Amino acid sequence: MNKQIIKILLLIVGFAVLFVLIYKVGPASIYQHLCLLKWKIFLLLLPYSLVFILDTLGWQYSFRERKTSFKNLFTIRLAGESVNAIIPSAYFAGEPVKAYYLKRYNIPLVDGLATVVISRTIMTITQIIFVMLGVGFLLFKLNISGPRLTSSIAITLLGIPIILFIIFIQKRGLFASVLRILQKLKIRIRYLEKKKDKLVELDDIIFQFYSYYKVNFFLSFTFYFLGWMAGLLEVFLVLYLLGVPVDFISTYIIESLSTVARGVTSFIPGSIGGQEGGVMAIFKSLGLSTSIALTFGILRRVRELIWVTAGLFILSKLGWTGVETAMEK
């Protein structure tokens, strides 16, 4: 079956799930919650602005040395993240787009690809830690004990070897390792073999970053983790404006586990339906209203739509042909 048809079918399924959730919760109750906000809905753009600034700083420090301005990185990242949001690819589709547009500022494609790989890696590591803490808070909140607690902690701690493996494989040469495995399996991919020299160079740049630019790694790690933490402000602000009292631990659980729900359903364009279902499950586990949960999910969608629109506008200015070229590369 054509990939494009599969994406359309997944999108239809996602919307169907979303409409079912809205029907079960009750459109009237969601409308009442939204009426409470009125003009205050625009305040919801502020927290994510901070998140995006911190994430851009995280990307800036994933370069071995500063090669372009924060403003340029901000606009390129906005364009790339809009592609990540609309193309189901576990949020990797926009990364080559970012590398491609870095060429406009005299940054070679290999260097650009290296920095987006490093950046995405550090962002993933901080997300794993962020989620691990969230699971820990959830266990504490639900007062889980005995064998269930032991097994839950064991599963949560699996994040540590995953982090170590990610760093280890990149220092060993991620792309070279893939080529070696393919060779041992006697699998030949002409495109990869043709790009072998570039892939080895890419591995070398990544190795140099982890080996000799530890301060940059620490700063990038710090800003990305602060970016995840800044997401708590959005959760707190939405619930505060909706008149729902919530403590820090509950806020942390909602934000951290929401990222898991979005990641697990990333095969659906925009995680439509999946993200909202995950948010409702999280709210329910905390004893919060499912109508509030779905209202929260819808408000987050509105914010995402505004940012994606801004990103697509940037893409139109940079040139859409660049996206197609980057995806082909």
Give the topology.
Layout: H1 3-25, H2 27-37, H3 45-60, H4 70-86, H5 94-102, H6 109-141, H7 147-156, H8 159-172, H9 174-184, H10 190-194, H11 196-212, H12 214-241, H13 248-264, H14 274-285, H15 290-318, H16 321-328
Helix pairs in contact: 2-15, 3-4, 3-12, 4-5, 4-15, 5-6, 5-16, 6-7, 6-8, 6-11, 6-12, 6-13, 8-9, 8-11, 9-11, 12-13, 13-14, 14-15
Largest sheet: none
The ordered string of helix (H) and strand (E) elements is HHHHHHHHHHHHHHHH
Helix % is: over 70%
Q: For this entry, what is the oligomeric state of its chains?
A: single chain
Number of strands: 0
Beta-strand percent range: under 5%
Average pLDDT taken over every residue: 81
Our count of domains comes out at: 1
What integer value in Å does the Rg equal? Answer: 21 Å
The tally of helices reads 16
Broad structural category: mainly alpha
Q: Return residue spans where pLDDT drops below 50 for at least 5 consecutive residues.
A: none
Query: Globular, elongated, flat, extended or rod-shaped: what is the shape?
Result: globular
From the N-terminal CA to the C-terminal CA, the straight-line distance is 24 Å
Overview of this structure, please?
Helix 2 packs across helix 15, helix 6 crosses helix 13 and helix 9 packs across helix 11. The protein has one domain. It is 79% helix and 0% strand. The protein is mainly alpha-helical. The model has no long low-confidence stretch (mean pLDDT 81).
